[in-house]
Amino acid sequence: MNQSVSRELFGDKRLGFYIYLGVEAVMFATLFATYIIFTPPSKGVTPTEAFDLRSVIMASVFLLPSSATLLIAEKGLKDGSRVKVWIGLITTFVLGAVFLGLEVHEFYKYAVHEGYTISMNNFMASFYTLVGLHASHVAFGLCWMVLLMLQLKRNLPSALFNEKQKIFNYYWHFVDFIWVMIIIFVYSPYVF
Amino acid sequence: MNLPSIGQIPSDVVAAWIFTIIVGIVLLVWLTKLKKWPVVFEYMRTTHHRKIGTMYILFAIIFFFRAGMDAMLIRTQLAVPKNDFWVFQGDKYNEVFTTHGTIMIFFVAMPLLIGLMNVAVPLQIGANDLAFPYLNAISFWFFLAGGLIFNMSFFMNSAPNAGWTAYAPLSTDTYTPGPNINYYILGLQVSGLGTIFTAINMIVTVIRLRAPGLKLSKMPLFPWSTLVTSSLILVAFPVLTIALVLLMFDRFYGTSFFTGEIGSPVYWQHLFWIFGHPEVYILILPAFGVFSDVISNFSRKKVYGYTSMVIALALIGLLGFMVWAHHMFTVGMGPLANSVFAITTMLIAIPTGVKVFNWLFTMRGGVIRMKTPMLFALGFIPTFVMGGVTGVMLAVAAADYQYHDSYFVVAHFHYTMVGGTILGAFAGIYYWYPKMTGKVLDDKLGRWHFWLFLIGFHLTFLPQHFAGLNGMPRRVYTYTWADNVFIFNAISTVGAYLMGISMLFVIWNLYKTHRYGKKADGDPWDGRTLDWSVASPAPEHPFNPMPKVKRMDEFWYRKVNNKGLEYADDPRPSPISVETYQPIILAGVMIALSIAFIYLWVWLQVILGAGVLSFLVIRSLTDERRQAYREEERS
Amino acid sequence: MKKLLPLLTLILLSGCSLRTLNPVSNSAEKITDLIYLSFAIMMLVLAVVFILFALFIRKYKERPETSDKIPKEKKENKLLEVTWTVIPIILIAILAVPTVKATYDITSTISGPDDGVSKEAVVVKVKAEQFRWEFTYENGKQTMDELVLPKDQKVTLRLSSNDVIHSFWVPRLAGKMDVRPNKENRLSFVPQVTGTFQGKCAEFCGAGHANMRFETKVVTQEKFEDWLASE
Description:
The complex is a heterotrimer. By secondary structure, chain A is an all-alpha fold. Chain A has helices at residues 4-38, 47-50, 53-79, 82-114, 122-153, 158-191. Chain A contains 6 helices and no strands. The mean pLDDT of chain A is 92. By secondary structure, chain B is mostly helical. In chain B, helix 4 packs across helix 14, helix 8 (265-298) packs parallel to helix 11 and helix 12 packs parallel to helix 15 (443-469). The chains are: A mainly alpha, B mainly alpha, C alpha+beta. Chains B and C meet through helix 4, helix 10, helix 11, helix 12 and helix 13 of B and helix 1, helix 2, helix 3, strand 7 and strand 9 of C.
């Protein structure tokens, strides 16, 4: 059986998506630069006052393992086991959703309870744009997973589903990687 | 002659409405009468690279006339001292030069070059289409959507007015309230997205879809320049995207990144030029690629110093990222930063010089055939070198304190952008026109176009050097007799009209060619590269069977030795093209979404945003690969 | 061509009186020298390219007898390639050294509040706002759109803006310096000739940018003292 069509076309798509992730990386890098330039701020709330260690750790506890649970789904693809794919996708989805809930809670706490609004100073402004962009990537990833599960229920050619699943995996690992960067550059200088 | 405004609306806007409506009606009647609607619908749902490339070029030329009108208005207002032409003083003049600059860069130069890449790159490397045909259609319709959003502003009497650089804090809502700059932000954002997608598409195409045996080291220089340019886009455009997002937050959501006590206006300049300087190389490198191919073709010689040409391309691209602050010498960065950026800027002259000498020596010993594309290439060499040497003069940081933001700079970048990019685009259009439409543009009218354009160009921009040296700042709508720059401006205006007239010859040429022109064969210029081995216009699946390549300019050497191309047995599968209205509808939703942002209608933003996302779902569910993979599974 | 001749002479004549090429201060003079140096080097490059260009086109243009000829391919000449890489490097080195020197000479390194202003210098605070200039002297005297300076004495301008970015430019006296909000820039020079020189805003700043001009009067030191003391 000749697999060259799906193999070559997937190769194109994978390279294209890698390049796209590079584009995203440049966007995030620009926002990181913005954050570093404007933090700590000359007036208004400082990061040491605003951040608390507990919520960062809580959020990380949920998001970082989701890269690992996604590996179960990847393994499922290799073994041809739909059950593993389902388990991997669902656990990843749950972890991601909890993370997003915690993020929304953190934003709500800052903006409404403490009154650190986006216009307070440029530290808060760049924090909200950077971490907000990341959170929206997680939200986008959750929707994407729902779509993937839908595709899994439909009867797609296996090569096509593998392709879609793999592209999503790259995306999710990338989003996780950005979170690690956020811990390093945004939180860690001020919470430890 | 002076009709400042009709009611609340300036008369130029009224005139534009009337003009556009009349042209629109004429166009509709004409299309119906000639029964051309099926063709229009065919192009609306196509994903084929040649058709998309042709549309890029068509709309770029329309925008060229639009922004060219701006140029005429600018030059008319500046023709004599203390002039009071129509409504173009003060803010109205500011709007005109802002739209002139922005449209020329983003909606003329970019799409002209991207259009040529679309048409020529797959054909030159033996690919049956770009790697992602569907994405390519998205890119094109996003570009057009961006262009329409940006141009809509003028018809709503709120054209952007902070210059194409939109320097903060002038571009923040404190100093420019109203929707004007919002149009600028959203228009660039949407078209920028399209540009990023195109760059991804081009890189994957060049890296993975070359014909068997066509190694990178044997590839023609236009695809090479496409590869380098696309890489530059990938780094430069995301920075612009984020800069625009931050500016949008400043304007919409009360942040102060670039303004107020805590903001940094200079940070905007850094971000803008980290994008903006690579952008000018994005605009010039593809033109270099076109010239390399054209000069080699019309001298009947392979390009001189191929390896050094490729290295020079890469070096220019690399250095392009290390020079952005030379736009900011007078901002007060201190002597160290100024000196460093002065030297890196001067270094760019070296690879550029190598390219110029290689072009000259490509011609040496050849047979130089003076066809229209070659004329543009020959006009380019001295013109661009003049722009290049003023570039080195501008790099002298201390001297730039005098040149900066004066007409000297205006002259310099028009010498490089018009003398390089626009002449390159014209050369490319005349050169590949048969591949796009199957007809060769008329040579005699092409000559008229070339000579009028070139003479008009030098008349316009050479005197501007002197106006700048005599102390005329850029972006002023008037000057006095005492300024002593009248003579320069007067000549400049005459030249500008000459350039305007030369463009009428393009319209005449298009008309004449399509009315009376004969059908062209596959190889009208006696070409060297694979694009000339297929029929004109290029068919949907041109390389079937797929040629095998053993050396550079394979097609030429086989032709000279009276042999046909060899064919490969088992080429890789081609990308799957589809016919779909999804991209154009998505672009329509993007326009509506942008308007919701421009006028801050939050509920509409939410609804239309959801609409855009739902397109991703539709796309995933209607994936054209499903069919192809199913067949593969069965076989 | 004959009709163009008077026009060309006219351009050349006005070319000789171009403001930036007729400096009347020490720093503007340095810039003018640099402009001439870079212009000379660049004309050399331009001449080489133009001559080769004209030569090759004349010699290798298609003629009836060569219209079917297929030229022989020759190998690249390594020596030539090295030449046109190395010579530009040398030219740029020649240009880079005086560039860096002049840049350090005329760019103020200090932008702090009060330090670094020498006692002898006349210090003028320059405030720019849409669309006017306000000059404040050390004794509190203020003028609007008119800057008066003494001849042969060092002048230090402390530039800042009340709103958007402007740029201070008196072509005959000094190169530009941007005038920014919330940040002070410095500009120093020694005027060497008395007279009235036009000054302009050189950074686009909004609707009235073109009319944001001022006059600079350089007077003798005695006259300057008198003027400063008067109401």
